[in-house]
Each structure stands twice: as structure tokens, then as C-alpha cells.
């Protein structure tokens, strides 16, 4: 049945709700990338099998038989605790569920409504039965991720039952395109892809091209920043919200076609979106005459092919057109001449996912969340040296301290916080002194970092900042598209210098050259990716200059991370003089007389670790 | 010369996406999925069929990291070296795999065409770092030892 007007939508919602209510028990197994990797698919199959085997229990929809539904949901956010299973209506949240636990869950919870307490989340002696009690989730504000983990990510019916497509029907039946534009503009929604450009202004500029018939809406799902997976989680966990947001954007800006550009490494996102687009088309919520109106909008998916630079707007549209994904000089800007040189709205996944809420509840509601300059929430993925890794959503303006300690549970193993990398490889590092700064687009910029798409990588005292700078530089250097000289050559030279320093061959002058190159690339590169490529070097040089100097002058790596700074030594007290280390040394750096302590010549040793690995008496140790 | 079946397959794929310049990337992706690499001859053929120059087709194919003109192994192993995985020691995993399979930075595929080992910048499963994939199946919280066990298991598959 297609949905041809507002009443149909309401009817569909009723049917869907009835279907959901007819379950006596719903088993929700997380199907996000993280949980699937931990084996949630097997749990899902096992639960299906168990429910099937029981006499008197059916998975079909017949009023008088108790129904048990098993659904695959989107990411619930606490990836490290996966696979996650939640049982409704009791609302029990089980963590780290194994295949062998399924039978017990089935026996106790499904059949007898009893909790399996040993599977609850435990922290510091306390155990938490429901997801809302877990501090990681309790302290978040979820708008974009509202539905993730709540219901079946693939089911259009469940999306509709939860209020989905209300925003689109409100836009189509109660608002003119201009009113939609005004509402989004008024909400001060800023692009979540990193730059923070006001979405409403962008949309208005596209809509203003009334002389051009064809307009496009493009979604940037090329979440290339290593350490970031927020957009992937939305595409996997709530694909219909993204599609609804894009459809509203198309209505407001007069676009007939939309493209979602998904990075190649997210096969699950591609599959879910394809399925969702088909479902929406079948129901008449996408395609020709949406909800029976004159408005038509078609959606396509393009898969990336492994080029980080395609996250840049003009490179992304070039890639959709079938070209090399290289940025071009602007202007003309994407809003004037984007895809196929037509006016194009280009926003990222999270931005579009915010739109249904703004239309439905209004700009004034949206502005009550977050800060004045950056209203709303922001999703972050916190990873690295932190207790709870995962996906979070907090109001703009939340401090790093709240994110790391209250939500993230502090540093892994109770270590000391050293720095946090924000904004991906081209972002910057924030340190202890920034712990109480509220994060929003403007505040972060002040400290030589960018919001980026929201990847947060936490580092403790075991992380060497020079090595971090080298790592990110090697990433941006490898991903430089090679079109403009400052980025192509500049990042290469910077990487060479950083490699020298990490290898203990740096000179003090190198630091000045690095700064000079960094400012050159920052100011002269063609695109945003090039311009932000040196930010990590700039911010680490500023805050952790001492570490650079120690590497150069003292050949010392305080974090004990750089191999070249190691010195292998034999402890004469433990050495029995067996000669095994000398025999194993590929460099011939170890000499000695049998039954007396051997010695390592540091000028020949190339730190392969073979001696230490092979010593039966633990006599070889490493000095930093 | 490639077998005729390659051209038949290419024709099917071209027909699905349409003879347009913008179909180039999706067509190349499907060919690569079918054969685990992009045969140069076939790319020349596709270019002619969809009306782009051979030079253009090659310039696009060489730009994107995912396309390979070299045949890849039966099991394509991608070790994630994104930030989160790097911080949680992904490089020792890569080194262990390379050592076990006799591969290096330059040599990615074993001579018996069983394994290809590559790195990838982020798989989006950072919560479970370090991760790697075998033919798109994600393996979480890896260690060098677990990686080697997996290789043994995959080898066992083929005895």
C-alpha cells in the first residue's frame, strides 16, 4: 500500500503500532558495526532459533499467542560492551552477551520475566539494569541518535510508528518551501561536517537560483577521519531519518535528485540505505508524487573508492560525476555550481538527521539546546585511552571534562589524561588546560583545533605527541590528492622532518622549518583539507614543544613509545653468559666471553628486540 | 587475452549502470568485486563502451586507492591503522601477518594467491580497536597471536 496523504500516514502508524504492541516480548540485538564484529549476528540467529523451538510461542502475528519479536537495531553506542541485547517491555539491558548466554536469557527473561543479573553492566560494584541508568548513556542528550538502538533499523513501519515522516508531512502540507527555509535558518543549525557553516543560509542560496531548473541535494557520508564513526552509525542505525531530512531539504530548495556518498569502508551503511530507499519508494515516501503531492524526489547512492579527499565538497561532487576526486578552486561555490555545475545543497549525515526534529518541534525548541552560537547537540565518537569507548551525543558547549570523566568513565587503567585529538587527522590537540572549555564550533577554533566531524581520540601519558604528529602527517600526506603544490610538497617535507625527529636524527632548526612549512600549507593550500593538514603539528609544537626538544637533544621519548629512542642494555647481575643473545643478534652488536656478562654496542644495535625476546634469564632490558 | 566471460560480465554491468561517464566508478567497483581486481584490458573495453577516453579511465582508476590492477588473494585482509587502532597497537599485528605470510610493504599478495594483506585508515569500529577485516568481516580486539590463529584457520579451510 502506498501512503498517499496525511490520513494514510496516520493509518499506517496505527497499523505499525498495533504490530509492535502485539509482541509480549521484544528482543533487541544491536546490529551496529561494532556489535556485529563482536558476534551479535550469532546471538540474533540463536535467539531466533530458541524462540522458534518453543511450543506455544510464535514469531508470527496472531493476537492470542504470546509473541516474541527479535529485531536487529542500530548502534546503541557502548561499543566496548558489545554484543548488546535489550529485552522489552522489561527494559533489561544485557552487555557482552555470548552465544552460551542465550539459553539462560530465554529461560529466565523471555519465559519467566526474570532478569539475568550477571549480564547487567557493572561498574565499581554497582550493577545497572536498564540503559538509562548506565552513566555513559544517562548523561547524554540524544536527538540525532534518538532512535539508534530503540527499534529495528531496517523497518520503515517502526520508524513511522515512532513519529517518523511527521516532519515531512508537516513541511509538505502546512509549510511553503520558503517557510521551511526560514525555520532551518532561524534554528541556526550549523553544518556538522566540520566547517560549521549555517545550513539555512546554504539552503537559501541554492533555492535562490530560480533561473536554473535542476537543483541537487547531496549528503556527504564519506566519513574519512580515522577514529570517527558517528555518521556511519546514523546511516546504519536510523537510515530513514537521514532520508527524511534530505527529502525535506529537497522540498525546500527545489531539488529533484539526491545523492548519498558513502565511504567504501561502510558496506553495512550502503546495504541499510539501499534497503531503506527501496522501502520508502514502495510506500510512496520517495520517488514521484510524494505523499500524493506534486513534489517528486529521487535518491541515489554512490560508494566512495578509498580517497580521503573526497570528503571535501568539490572533490565529492567530482567523484559522483565519475572523475578523479580532486578539489577545485572556489568560487564558484557548491551552492552556485555544485554537482554537474548545478546549484547543490551539500551537507553531512548528521546535519540532515537534525532537520526532521527542527521542522517538527520548531527552531525555538532547537535553540534551547546547546550554546547561542552553536545550538543543538553534537555526536562524538570517543576512542583511544578511555574506559568507555563509543558513540555519544551531547549538547554543544559540553566540557571535555564531562565528556572524558562523567561519560567516558575516565582514562583507561586510571592513567593521567595528556591530550585529546579533536577533528581527525587535520584537527588539533586539546590538553589539560582545556578540560573546562565548553566545546562548540567557535571555542574549539580558538585553540588551533577544529570540531571536524567529531572524532575524539583520548591520549594518556603513554602516547608520544611527536609520534602522534608524525602519524597524522603520514595520513594527510598519503591522502593528499597532489593537485596543489603547498599540500603535495609541504606535507611531504613536514613528514620527512617528523620522521627524522622520531628516529632521533632531528636538529633544533627543524622545529623552525616545521613551523614555517606549517604556516605556508595552512595559508596557501587549495582546499580545506590541505589548509587544516598542519594543525596537529602546529598545536603539538605549541603545547608539547618540550617533547620535541627532548627527542632532538636528549634522544629521549618520555612516553616510551619511539623505538629509536630505546637503548638495549644487559644486566650483568642476571646475565649467565650463555651467548644466546649474541647468536641471535642480526647486527652483530653483542659481544662477550662465555660465562661472563655480555655487552651490547649501542652504536651497532638497531633495536630489533631479538636479544630481549630470546633471553632465558630476563637479563636484557630497555632504557629510555 | 582475457577470457570472453569477462567481457560478457562487463557488458552486464555496463547495461545495469548505463553508458554514461558518471557510471565509470560504479562499473569499476563491480568488476573489481567480481574478480577481486580490475583487469587493465577490461578497463580499456569499458572506457570505449561508455564513451570516455582510455586515458581518463586510467586516471580515475589510479586515483582511488580501492582499485587494483594486480590480482588479489582469495582472502583480503585489511588491518586497520586508523587513529584508535594505531594507539592500541595495530602495527605489531600487521608485522606478524607479514612475517607469517612472507609479505612486506611492497609485496601484498602471497604467491599462491591465498592472502592479500593491506592496511586501511579506519573501519569505523573504533570501539573495538585494534580491528582487521577478512573479506569485509570485521574481527575485533585483535592481537598478533589472534591474527596468526586466524590465518591457520583460514588455511585449514583450504586443505
Structure characteristics:
heterodimer, A: 624 residues, alpha/beta, Glutaredoxin, Rossmann fold, Ubiquitin-like (UB roll), 5 domains, 5-stranded mixed β-sheet, 4-stranded mixed β-sheet, 19 strands, globular, B: 159 residues, alpha+beta, Arc Repressor Mutant, subunit A, 2 domains, 4 strands, 11% strand, elongated
Account of the 3D structure:
The complex is a heterodimer of chains A (624) and B (159). Helices cover 40% and strands 15% of the residues of chain A. Chain A has 624 residues and is an alpha/beta fold. Chain B folds into 2 domains: 4-63, Arc Repressor Mutant, subunit A (Orthogonal Bundle); 75-157, Glutaredoxin. Chain B has 7 helices and 4 strands, in the order H-H-H-H-E-H-H-E-E-E-H. In chain B, helix 6 runs parallel beside helix 7 (144-157). Chain B is elongated and about 50 Å long. The mean pLDDT of chain B is 90. The chains are: A alpha/beta (624), B alpha+beta (159). Chains A and B meet through helix 2, strand 11, strand 15 and helix 18 of A and helix 2, helix 4 and helix 5 of B.
* Percentage beta strand of chain A: 5-15%
Biggest β-sheet: strands ordered side by side in the sheet of chain A = 12-11-15-13-14
Distance linking N and C termini of chain B: 31 Å
In CATH, the architecture of the largest domain in chain A is 3-Layer(aba) Sandwich
Task: Indicate the structural class of chain A.
Answer: alpha/beta
Structure summary, number of beta strands of chain A: 19
The main pleated sheet of chain B reads as: 4 strands, mixed
Helix content class of chain B = 40-55%
Mean pLDDT value of chain A: 89
CATH classification class of the largest domain in chain A: Alpha Beta
Strand elements of chain B, count? 4
Radius of gyration of chain B: 18 Å
Question: Could you give me the name of the CATH homologous superfamily of the largest domain in chain A?
Answer: NADH-ubiquinone oxidoreductase 51kDa subunit
Question: What would the principal axes of the Cα set say about the shape of chain B?
Answer: elongated
**Do you know the CATH architecture of the largest domain in chain B?**
3-Layer(aba) Sandwich
Oligomerization state: heterodimer
User: What is the number of domains of chain B?
Assistant: 2
Amino acid at each position: 500500500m502506498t501512503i498517499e496523504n496525511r490520513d494514510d500516514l496516520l493509518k499506517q502508524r496505527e497499523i505499525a503500532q498495533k504490530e509492535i504492541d502485539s509482541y509480549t516480548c521484544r528482543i533487541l540485538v544491536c546490529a551496529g558495526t561494532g556489535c556485529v564484529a563482536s558476534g551479535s549476528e550469532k546471538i540474533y540467529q540463536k535467539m531466533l532459533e530458541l524462540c522458534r523451538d518453543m511450543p506455544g510461542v510464535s514469531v508470527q502475528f496472531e493476537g492470542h499467542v504470546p509473541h516474541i519479536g527479535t529485531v536487529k537495531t542500530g548502534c546503541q553506542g557502548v561499543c566496548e560492551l558489545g554484543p548488546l541485547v535489550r529485552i522489552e517491555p522489561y527494559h533489561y539491558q544485557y552487555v557482552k552477551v555470548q552465544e552460551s548466554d542465550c539459553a539462560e536469557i530465554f529461560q529466565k527473561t523471555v519465559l519467566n520475566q526474570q532478569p539475568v543479573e550477571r549480564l547487567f553492566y557493572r561498574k565499581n560494584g554497582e550493577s545497572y539494569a536498564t540503559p538509562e541508568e548506565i552513566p555513559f548513556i544517562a548523561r547524554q542528550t540524544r536527538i540525532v541518535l534518538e532512535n539508534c538502538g530503540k527499534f529495528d533499523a531496517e523497518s520503515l513501519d517502526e520508524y513511522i510508528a515512532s513519529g517518523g515522516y511527521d516532519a515531512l508531512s508537516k513541511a509538505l502540507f502546512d509549510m511553503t518551501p520558503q517557510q521551511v527555509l526560514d525555520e532551518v535558518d532561524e534554528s541556526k543549525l550549523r553544518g556538522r561536517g566540520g566547517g560549521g557553516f549555517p545550513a539555512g543560509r546554504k539552503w537559501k542560496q541554492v533555492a535562490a537560483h530560480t533561473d536554473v531548473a535542476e537543483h541537487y541535494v547531496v549528503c556527504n557520508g564519506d566519513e574519512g577521519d580515522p577514529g570517527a564513526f558517528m555518521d556511519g552509525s546514523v546511516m546504519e542505525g536510523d537510515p530513514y531519518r537521514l532520508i527524511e531530512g534530505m527529502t525535506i531539504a529537497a522540498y525546500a530548495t527545489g531539488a529533484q535528485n539526491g545523492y548519498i556518498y558513502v565511504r567504501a569502508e561502510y558496506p553495512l551503511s550502503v546495504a541499510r540505505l539501499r534497503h531503506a530507499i527501496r522501502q520508502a519508494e514502495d510506500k510512496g515516501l520517495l520517488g514521484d508524487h510524494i505523499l500524493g503531492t506534486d513534489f517528486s524526489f529521487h535518491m541515489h547512492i554512490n560508494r566512495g573508492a578509498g580517497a580521503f579527499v573526497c570528503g571535501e565538497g568539490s572533490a565529492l561532487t567530482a567523484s559522483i560525476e565519475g572523475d578523479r576526486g580532486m578539489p577545485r578552486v572556489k568560487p564558484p561555490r557548491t551552492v552556485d555550481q555544485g554537482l554537474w555545475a548545478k546549484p547543490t545543497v551539500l551537507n553531512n549525515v548528521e546535519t540532515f538527521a537534525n532537520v526532521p526534529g527542527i521542522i517538527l518541534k520548531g527552531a525555538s525548541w532547537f535553540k534551547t539546546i546547546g550554546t547561542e552560537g552553536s545550538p543543538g547537540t553534537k555526536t562524538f565518537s570517543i576512542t583511544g585511552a578511555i574506559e568507555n569507548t563509543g558513540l555519544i551525543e551531547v549538547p554543544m558547549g559540553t566540557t571535555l571534562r564531562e565528556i572524558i570523566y562523567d561519560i567516558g568513565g575516565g582514562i583507561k587503567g586510571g592513567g593521567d589524561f595528556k591530550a585529546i585529538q579533536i577533528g581527525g587527522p587535520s584537527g588539533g590537540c586539546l590538553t589539560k588546560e582545556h578540560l573546562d572549555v565548553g566545546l562548540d564550533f567557535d571555542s574549539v577554533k580558538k585553540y588551533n583545533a577544529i570540531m571536524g566531524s567529531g572524532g575524539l581520540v583520548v591520549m594518556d601519558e603513554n602516547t608520544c605527541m611527536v609520534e602522534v604528529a608524525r602519524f597524522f602527517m603520514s595520513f594527510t600526506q598519503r591522502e593528499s590528492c597532489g593537485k596543489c603544490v603547498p599540500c603535495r610538497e609541504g606535507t611531504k617535507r613536514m613528514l620527512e622532518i617528523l620522521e627524522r625527529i622520531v628516529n632521533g636524527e632531528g636538529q633544533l632548526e627543524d622545529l623552525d622549518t616545521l613551523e614555517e612549512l606549517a604556516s605556508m600549507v595552512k595559508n596557501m593550500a587549495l582546499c580545506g583539507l590541505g589548509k587544516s593538514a598542519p594543525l596537529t603539528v602546529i598545536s603539538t609544537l605549541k603545547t608539547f614543544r618540550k617533547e620535541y626538544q627532548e627527542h632532538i637533544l636528549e634522544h629521549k621519548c618520555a612516553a616510551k613509545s619511539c623505538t629509536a629512542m630505546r637503548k638495549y642494555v644487559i644486566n650483568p647481575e642476571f646475565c649467565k653468559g650463555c651467548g644466546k643473545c649474541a647468536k641471535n643478534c642480526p647486527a652483530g652488536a653483542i659481544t662477550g666471553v662465555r660465562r661472563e656478562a655480555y655487552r651490547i654496542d649501542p652504536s651497532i644495535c638497531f633495536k630489533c628486540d631479538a636479544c630481549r625476546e630470546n633471553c632465558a634469564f630476563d637479563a636484557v632490558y630497555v632504557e629510555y | 587475452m582475457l577470457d570472453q566471460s569477462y567481457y560478457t560480465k562487463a557488458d552486464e554491468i555496463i547495461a545495469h549502470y548505463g553508458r554514461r561517464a558518471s557510471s565509470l566508478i560504479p562499473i569499476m567497483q563491480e568488476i573489481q568485486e567480481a574478480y577481486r581486481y580490475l583487469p587493465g584490458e577490461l578497463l580499456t573495453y569499458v572506457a570505449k563502451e561508455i564513451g570516455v577516453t582510455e586515458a581518463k579511465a586510467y586516471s580515475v582508476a589510479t586515483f582511488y586507492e580501492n582499485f587494483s590492477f594486480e590480482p588479489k588473494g582469495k582472502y583480503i585482509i585489511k588491518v586497520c591503522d586508523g587513529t584508535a587502532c594505531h594507539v592500541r597497537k595495530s602495527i605489531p599485528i600487521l608485522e606478524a601477518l607479514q612475517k607469517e605470510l612472507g609479505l612486506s610493504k611492497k609485496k601484498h599478495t602471497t604467491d599462491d594467491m591465498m592472502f592479500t594483506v593491506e592496511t586501511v585508515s579506519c573501519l569505523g569500529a573504533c570501539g573495538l580497536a585494534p580491528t582487521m577485516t577478512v573479506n569485509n568481516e570485521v574481527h575485533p580486539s585483535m592481537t598478533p597471536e589472534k591474527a596468526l590463529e586466524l590465518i591457520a584457520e583460514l588455511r585449514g579451510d583450504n586443505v
